[in-house]
Amino acid sequence: MSQTKVKPATGKLGIFIVGNGAVATTFMTGVLMARKGLTKPIGAMTQYDKIRVGRGADKQYLHYKDIVPIASLDDIVFGCWDVYPQNAYQSAVYAEVLKRSDIDPVREELEQIVPVKAAFDKNYAKRLDGDNVKTSADPAKKGEMPTRWEMVEQLREDIRTFKAEKQCDRCVVLWAASTEIYVPIDEQVHYSLSALEAAMKADDREHIAPSMCYAYAALTEGCPFVMGAPNTTVDIPAMWELAEKTQMPIAGKDFKTGQTLVKSGFAPIIGTRCLGLDGWFSTNILGNRDGLVLDVPENFRTKEVSKLSTLETILKADEQPDLYSDYYHKVRINYYPPRNDNKESWDNIDISGWMGYPMQIKINFLCRDSILAAPVCLDLCLLIDLAARAGRCGTQRFLSFFLKSPMHDYTVGEEAVNHLYRQHTMLKNAIREMGGYEADEEVD
User: Fold this and answer.
1) Which residues pair with 165 in a beta bridge?
2) Residues whose CB is less than 8 angstroms from the CB of residue 101 and which lie 6 or more positions away in sequence, other chains included
3) How far is Cα 309 from Cα 437, in angstroms, rounded to an integer?
4) What's the 3-state SS for 125-170?
5) Which residues contact 45 (CB under 8 A, 6 or more apart)?
6) Which residue(s) pair with 362 in the sheet?
7) Residue 153: pLDDT above 70?
8) Pick from 331, 358, 328, 335: which is nearest to 346 by CA?
9) CA 20 to 30 Å from 393, out of 119, 217, 337, 386?
10) What percent of the chain has pLDDT over 70?
11) What is the rounded distance in angstroms from the CA atom of residue 191 to the CA atom of residue 201?
């Protein structure tokens, strides 16, 4: 083992969250409860997973914190932006994910987390009607939406204020807000930092999503950025360039929680067993605010692109044409208010076996969306903070394990790794490497 060069996790880690809804408040409440010893952070890899380091007589299985310096839950401080002004306690109660008995013990701390006004464009999330939004600083445009560049400047000021008031040693910005409408990647705008900045300054509202303003502000203020929705935000060359320029790590996109987690873990079973696939139909019902936003076709399109990408990189027609040359893949999400955050997904999988005989697999997952997302939020924040202290910048591919549509350099034909077990190997190797151990597992 060589000595790790990762900077220690000293001082406070600020986690500034875009969104103060079900996912964010479940995440915050769980962390606050866990550090009081009132609950367990179940589902968080950083708190439970063990990795083998060394071989032979030197072999050990260690928690992440015993390999690399991971921030303690005790050192986390929270802030947030949201279009609704309710504090984190009010929002957690309203979300109805957690029982009051699991919120009230940290009520005082949650009440102190009051959302900053959001940089918001209603055209990107038509179903949201909050009035806690930023307006132009120009007196001639009083009450109007700020330009994209004004959004960037105001968000940068928010980050500086948050870090100063909370006395943060460092800060991570996490997107846990709604899915924006689909923004196709435009080479003229999104392929260089100079073009992106010019579009922001020209107030190009078609090509510059509000989420891009958050990412730009975070990176420019020295904060790693995590995109937890399928938005076109940091998965563009201009943002990769900015991440390199600022020497900041980025990760995205879309938290991998329920159905896609199952798909990325189950598809390898079909592939490894060399069974054929004729079709995979996935459908969901969801009743929370995310479901409401996704009920708009333009917003669902963003999610659909993210969810469809998983299967095609695991079961490949060019590698096994007899098995995967012509399968049908369909994804649906239906807004169904009675279920609230208790999402239900169905996967109907038509496979073929010996001599082409058909078989079926049906998976019914009754999951809790925010309960699955909260530990993913924690892991992503702690691990991207670790990456920053290790001097890693740009896209952090080792975080693909936690993301539905992992970022990759499509400009050179790179494919995303969606195979769950390969993703886990990438994660383990990165932890080993940052801990000064050999990254000794192959990713086939």
Assistant:
1) none
2) none
3) 33
4) CCCCCCCCECCCCCHHHCCCCCCHHHHHHHHHHHHHHHHHHCCEEE
5) 64, 375, 379, 401, 427
6) 348
7) yes
8) 331
9) 119
10) 98
11) 16
